[in-house]
Design brief:
Blueprint (H helix, E strand, L loop, with lengths): L1 H14 L4 E5 L5 E4 L8 E3 L8 H58 L5 E3 L5 E3 L2 H19 L5
Antiparallel strand pairs: 1-2, 1-3, 4-5
Helix pairs in contact: 2-3
Length: about 150
């Protein structure tokens, strides 16, 4: 029982506000402390605390909720950027494949010899010079869009 009383008194002593003193030293600097160095120190009255534990808990809960919302928004933004990077990489890969395909087709159309495509019945469909020029003209904008340059 004596220990309980002693612990209770110690807790009460810890809950009382500390005394704060102000003094000026020989060089004219102002100091603050809990123990006065001499009689020239003045005791300062501190205003009582206006926040109750309940208000402090509410404020902390509000801050935690704000922090959680901020962290959630950061995570959302990070995930959005990662997904966008994946989409951009896929689009770049698709564009590069399209460019390679168009370059092969352009080289084939630029070949000096006879050019043919398999026809619907399996026979060879040879391109005339007019049709070759028309195909190249039709292919030029797609080549520029996919490869970023005009073909040679």
């Amino acid at each position: 029982m004596r220990w309980g009383v002693l612990i209770g008194l110690l807790l009460l002593a810890g809950a009382t506000p500390a005394e704060v003193y102000r003094w000026t030293d020989d060089q004219g600097r102002v100091h603050y402390g809990e123990r006065p160095p001499g009689p020239e120190a003045r005791r300062i009255e501190l205003p009582p605390s206006t926040t109750s534990p309940v208000e402090t808990d509410r404020e902390m809960a509000r801050r935690r909720a704000l922090q959680k919302r901020l962290l959630d928004s950061y995570a959302y933004e990070r995930d959005r950027k990662a997904a966008e990077a994946v989409r951009d990489a896929e689009a770049q890969r698709t564009k590069a494949e399209r460019c390679q395909s168009l370059r092969r087709r352009w080289r084939r159309l630029s070949y000096a010899g006879p050019i043919y495509f398999p026809g619907p019945n399996g026979q060879r469909d040879y391109l005339s010079e007019e049709r070759r020029a028309t195909e190249k003209q039709r292919l030029r904008p797609a080549y520029k869009a996919a490869c970023g340059e005009l073909p040679d």
